[in-house]
Amino acid sequence: MSVKAGKIFRAYSGVLAESPRTLIITFAVYFLLQTLIRLFLPTALRVDEAQQVLFQQWLALGYDAQPPLYNWYQQIFFALFGPGLLAIGAAKNLVLFLIFFFYVKTAELVLTDRRLVAVAAVLLFVIPQVFWQAQRDLTHTTMLMLSMTMLLYVTARLFRQPSTPGYLALGVCIGMALLSKYNSLIILPAILAAAASHPEGRARILDRRLLLSLAIALILCVPHALWLFDNLALASEITLKRMAENAPDGRLSQVAFGFATFVGGALVIACVPVLLTGLSLVGLRSRIDTGVNRNWYRFFRTYFAAIALVMLLVISTLTLTEIRDRWLLPLFLPLPLFIALWLEQKHVSLARFVPRLVPVGLVTMLVIPVALIASQPVMAMLGLRTSSNYDWQGFAEKLRVEEKLAPSLIVTGDWRTGGNLRFLFRDTPVVTTTYDDFAPQIGLLPDRPILLVQITGRDKFPEMLEWLETNYGLRVKLPGIRWVDMPMSFPTEGKTLRFNYAVVRPSDLVATPGS
Q1: Can you give the pTM of this predicted structure?
Q2: Hey, where are the domains in the chain?
Q3: Are 100 and 27 in contact (CB under 8 A)?
Q4: Which whole-number Å values give the CA distances from 276 to 106, 122, 127, 354, 416, in the listed order?
Q5: Within the chain, which residues score under 70 in pLDDT?
Q6: Cβ atoms of 380 and 490 closer than 8 Å
């Protein structure tokens, strides 16, 4: 970096530290750039993206092991822009921008020095699960993060000035959280406990208008709750099974192991912002400032203590042993604010601290887009095969051009395959054996066959035939399974992906209802 560029970089970092409005505009530009970048990345959909495209075909009160708020939200963008990369990228990056917008606004309410607002935002941005995982694939998690930041913002506003619209907004935020991810049931009690530790919070809890908030949240959640009541096994079994993997023998050992994975996941999330804060403090003196209001510091300290207690209760009750860091990300979203409040208590020399830390956020903003663009070519050069590099487009073109297939229905065994094929066959309904609530009407004709597809294996073809019989009454004699090896979108030495598929025509039917 040239001397002149370095001066501009440092000057802009100083502006960000002094102007929360400029900070918000910077995040807006960054996430707009990320939306545009998604348009030029390989068209292979990641797991959560594929699920959204698959669900675009029908609207439901619930789908699977996650609440449906992000699915409903994504449907709006599909309706506006069609089921393409623009709709996917715009929806995700708008959520991410709003997370930082409300985070900055919340920081302005709870912090005394506005320079610490930039510190909190930067520390949030440099969490790996935020600057990498959330920008690449997470959907329901990011929606819960948005609900959480909105809830914190509305709470801080209510503490300052209670109002009926504020309590209405509180109810909306609670409802959004419950409809985003089920682990919001861990967050909400912790926020309630934290509010009880704040002098203004105790008064707000005892305000009768809190009942209005609860009523709004209940109204928003009742439709999905009715679906959940009828589909509890579907909504819980997969997640609980994943979270009970690698369980040791013995109840006490399982609880200890589960809590250890919780602590480990929390450390993974906290390590970068804590380490960055520590490095930026090197050589700086501090002292406790007794004149600083400690109410918000106590609020977040109580919140994290409550999170630990609730998690211990949940782990002990459900014997959870495999807790992944991305599941914990919304729970630890207030950590950067807590660190900023701690710095406020320590009365650190911000004139020296902020210029050390804020530029790291800007550097990360410059590096991540480049890393996203370069990641697939670089991994291909290293000989690594990734799902983001699968050539679904090539497979679709082979079916259309070489085999001249125009299927009336595509059946798959998983939603990643289903979503990617739906993305490319936009006029053809695509179903997976995972979901029984979407069985569109079809007309099986010689020139409009049913296409069965599975990648890297053949074990799910009998399951697909069973699904056809259960949902359509079609008993099918499995035709010959064909296969084609496709190179990666970015050529990877020695690596191909095998697509297995079968074409079902009327002549393959063994019997039909009424025959």
Answers
A1: 0.94
A2: 3-375, 390-511
A3: yes
A4: 22, 10, 10, 11, 37
A5: 1-3, 5, 235, 237-249, 287-292, 511-515
A6: yes
